Each structure stands twice: as C-alpha cells, then as structure tokens.
Amino acid sequence: MWDNIMVLAAAPVFNVQLILDGLFIGAIFALAGYGLALVWGVMNVKNLAQGELVIMGGYFAYVMTQLGLHPLLALIPAFAIMFGFGWLVYKIIISKVIERDLFTSLLATFGLALVIQQGLNLAFGPEVQTAQSGMEIRSIFGGNVTVADIRVLSLILCAILAGLVVLFMKHSRMGQAIRATSQDPRAARVMGIDTEKVYAFTFALNAAICGAAGVLISMIWVIQPFYGVPHSIRAFVVVTAAGLGNLPGVIIAALGLGVAEQYSGFVLGAEFQQATVVMLLIFVLMWRQFQMSKNRQVVQ
Amino acid sequence: MIKEKYLHAGLLVFGVLAPFLFPNYTVQISLLWIMILFALTWDTLGGQMGYNSLGNIVFFGVGMYISAIVQIGVVYDVALYTSPDGAALTGNFAPAQYYTGLALGILAAAVGCVILAVLFSQVFFGLRGPYFAIGTLGLALAAGELVGAWDYVGGGGGIALPVFPSDPKSQGIFFYYLCLVSALATYVFLRWLYNTRFGLAINAIRDDEEKAEAMGIHTKRHKTAAWCTSAFFLGISGALFGNMTGFIEPLEVAFPTITFGIFMVAMALLGGKGTLWGPILGAIVFHLIKEVTWTYLLGWQWIALGTLIIINVVYFQQGILGWARDKWPDLFGLTVDEAMSSGSEKRGSS
Questions:
Q1: What is the per-residue DSSP string for A124-143?
Q2: What residue ranges define each of the domains in chain A, with the CATH number in brackets?
Q3: B262 touches chain A (CB under 8 A)
Q4: What gap in Å lies between CA A133 and CA A214, rounded to an integer?
C-alpha cells in the first residue's frame, strides 16, 4: 500500500491518469445518479434496480457489436427500448408500491433487480463483456498517460445527454409537469396534471437515461450480468451525498466517486475497488447522520 | 381449532424423529431449521421493531468466521493453517480437540456477534426507514469484500474447517440436532421476549418511534438489545452452517447477501411479518417450494425467486398468516389465541 503511494508521489504523471480515468467513468455515474435522483425526488421510490437498468443498456451495445455494427449506434435503440421497458415496469410494479411505505418499493425493486440480472445471465452468460469501439488510444505526457478517444467521446455524449435532459425538464410541458408533481402531487392533480402519466414518464425517462449510460459504460469499461449491484450502490452514494434536486451536486459527487474509486483501486489493490464503493456509502450515510444529529434535541 | 400446544408437539416430534424418518434428507431438514432461525431473527427487527435490515446476514458470516478461527486456533496457528502448507492439517484434529474447539467456537461466535451488533448499533440506528435498509445492505456487501481481502483467514480462497472425527452420517445427525436445538431455542426465547415489556416497547418503536421516545422508552437501548438478540442466534447458526458445509468462503458461503440474506426477508414476508408464527410458516413453505422445485427450474430459479419477491411485496404484503387472519378472523381468534391475545401482536403492516 505504501509502495503504491510512493509510486504516486514519485511519478505525479500517474495521478493524471487516475484522475482522468476517474472523471471519464464518473461522468457516467452522474447520469445514473441523476436518474435515481429524479425518480426518488418525484415519486419517492428508491430504485434498487438502477444498476441493473444500466447493465441492461450495456448489453444493447454488446448486441450491436455482435451484429457487426458500431456500438455507438446502440444509443438510440437503447434509449427508446429502455424507455418502453421503464414504462412497463412502472405499470406492473412501481405504480402498485408508490403509495406504500418505502421499504416496500425498495424490496420490490430489489426483486426486479434479481429478475433482470438473472435474465441477462440466461441470455448472455456470465462472462465479462466489453463492446469494442475500435477507436484509437492516444498517449500524452510522453506515453505515460493514455487516453482512449472513445472515453473522450463518451464524456462529450454524457454532457450532451445531461444537457438535453436539463433543457427538457426546464422548458418542455412534460418537464414542467414533472417538476410540479415533485413539488406537490395533490396540487398538480388539482391543476389538471395527470400525475399517473407523469410518474410513468419519469420512471421511463430514468430507465432510458440508465440505458444510455449503460451503452457508454460497455464501451469504456466492462459489463457483466451481476455488475449491476455496485452501480446501484454508486447511484445511491451519489444521490445521498448530493441530495435531491441538486444537479451540480450530483455531477460533483459522481466525478469525485469515480476518482476515489480509481485511487483506491490503485493504492489498495483492485480487490478493494468494490469495497470502496460500499464503504463510501456507509461513510456518506454516517456523515449525513452526524449532520442531522446536530439539529436533534435529545430528551433522554 | 388447532391449539398452539399441538403445533408445538407436532413440530417437536417431527424435529426429533426427522433424521430417522427421512435419513436421506437430513441436510435439507437441518437447513430448514436454520431457515426458520433466519426468518425469526429477521422478524425481530423487521417485523416487530419496523427496522427492515437487508444486512442481517453479516452476523451469519461473522459467526462462521469467528467459530472457524477459534476452532483452528485452539490447536494450530491460524495463519499457518490457512497458508498453502496447512492443507494437510484439516484432518489432524483429535475428537477431544474437535469438540472443545466446536463448543468454544460456537460460544465465541455468539458473543462476538453480540459485541459487533452493539458496535453497529451505534452507527446504523441513526438511520431510519429505507436508509437503514440500504446502509445494512452496504454493510453485508462490504463485509464479504473485506473478508475476501484478508489473507489471515484465507482471503477469497476460503478455509477448510476441521474434519468431523467420525463418519459423515453421524456428522449429519450431530449437526442436525444442533440446528434443531438452536432453532427451538430461538423460538422459545423470542416467544418469551415478545410477551414481555420489551416486546411491547419494540412494537411501540415500530408504530411510532418519536412517540415511544416521548413516552419514556429508551429507544436506542431497546433497538440495540433487539439487534443483539438477532445477532446472537445468527452467530450460532453461522458457526453451525460453516461446520456442516466443511468449507467456508467469503462471498458464496459466509456472506451470501443475495441468497440467504434476501431469503430471510422473503420468508418473513411470505409468512406474515410481525407475527410469531408467520416467519416459521413462511420459512417452511419457502424452503419446501425451493427444495422441491429448485432443480427442475433449470436456471430459471432465480428469476422465479425475484418474481416471488415482487409478487409477495406488491400484491400479497400481509403474508400467509395475515391473509388468513383477514379471511377467517373468528377461526384465527381460536387457533392461536394465546399468542395473539397476549399483547405482543398487532398487525404487521405499517
């Protein structure tokens, strides 16, 4: 462990590599995190199947490469089909648990996560896959730092997608209805907004965003049917750290998480990379609890 | 018109005679008792106290590892035993060494888990509702990863436990009775516990924690004690399960978050959470369905499990017992009268 820190100190250029990798990956975490924040904020459902939706999207890109097409082309079908899938999931499951207590929605989406990951496992097998984009890998800083073109492209696509979603939420009729419903569903209904449709649309939009994020993940990283759980945990870390309805916070938290993961993977060893995500979750929860305990007045 | 004492007698007779009646299914029935223990201990927090934990499995795994370390540690150096050179040592346990190690191991597992539960309580009981569920889920996942990276206990490769100093058949029967006794002890203890003032207090926490606190219940102390109860029995079950399997490994055996960890929730919900008999009924039904259909589903079993959880949670949340109570309230008042009317029972839904 100390050796690795020494390496970082002796050759600062490795830091650049880690930070860049972290930022590229973190940008995609931000998409999944934003989707979760949307669903959480609008309908108060904590979606534990978030990571599975991401991985599901990733397999669209994988299928594209199997068909001999470029994986980037999968973005549009992934977005569209995942939108439909999200709508279906809302109608079958989420609409039934939306009025219930929060643990119900948590457990129902956990069941959904099991179904999706096992379904993917049956369909594609448990191998770790990646969608080859066939793009160049460039070296900078005299060959010590490598940057794949596809990573830069995915960062740009992330930014475009996030920008489109924000514009949609701000200016479109549906986006305004979603924001109105999240503020006060009852008042929104009184104003003539079909909240049921808004909820369905929100969940479908979340699934679509996750699907697009999955396509990008599969090109710059790896996918596997069971890699969804860490993605779900990451989304929770991001949202819990940033708070709801705080888009800049989500972006900063996600980028920070990406970098933190890369550093822990390098310093502590690859086997700790997963553990870091989970430990960060516990840490964020504890930190929030500490913040809140300042406001709490104990009688005992 | 089934009196509860007949149920007790029936279960006890079945439990004692089962290894002789169904000698080929000893392991499966041992597992049934462990499942009952799982569902009962989950329900202490999830059903009776309203704190839905997704990470109770952590005590199962920790108990397993503590027991393994103690069992090995009484005779050999653990680091040597788990190193590649130690492979020859697994069979090198005299009967006296083995039984002493096992007794100490189970004891240490139970005590160690209680201590751990006290520590975790300091952190996790500040979290409410879904945050508690997510936090404990994270705890279970982290535990698996961290133990897997710890070479002293064999890391991801796991440990082979000391071999039972007799033939496999008597090993099966020996551990069967240990499982039976621990499940019965859990039942008897929780039955008593739910009928005390403590049971009422944790029910009050479930119904409204702020009001409970305002009424003078020391909520944190009660929550800690309830988790310690769960941890105590889960630690024992982990120690037993580890020795039954003979080989322990962090992700699949010791901290199986998506199998046993979610089974315990599914079983308690299936039977009806917040009741004493619900988890037992749920565990029996679930385990029976699982053991009978698992091998015929050919890879679809996990999808079936996920679907079962979704259907259970979305459409059938009151569970079997809750459903029966709604359907035949009169009959129900008669059947489990003593347990139902003695104050600890309320509707499990929140």
A1: H-S--B-------EEEETTT
A2: 2-293 (1.10.3470)
A3: yes
A4: 14
Query: Pick from B123, B133, B314: which is nearest to A96 by CB?
Result: B314
pLDDT tens per residue, chain B (350 residues)?
A: 456 788 888 888 888 888 888 888 888 899 999 999 999 999 999 889 988 888 899 999 999 999 999 988 888 877 777 777 666 677 777 888 888 889 999 999 999 999 999 999 988 888 877 788 888 888 888 888 888 888 787 777 788 888 888 788 888 889 999 999 999 999 999 999 999 999 999 999 998 888 998 888 898 899 999 999 999 999 999 999 999 888 888 888 888 887 888 888 888 888 888 888 889 999 998 888 888 877 777 778 788 888 888 888 888 878 888 888 777 776 665 455 455 545 444 444 43
Confirm or reject contact between B10 and chain A (CB < 8 A): no
Interface test with A, best of B122, B136, B145 (most A CBs within 10 A): B145
Instruction: For residue A148, list its beta bridge partners.
Output: A137
Domain B4-341, CATH: 1.10.3470
Contacts of B133 in chain A (CB under 8 A): 103, 106
Q: What is the pTM of this model?
A: 0.85
Residues in chain B: 350
Fill in the amino acid letter for B313: V
User: What secondary structure letter does DSSP report for A223?
Assistant: B
Q: Please give the ipTM for the structure prediction.
A: 0.81
Residue type, B85: D
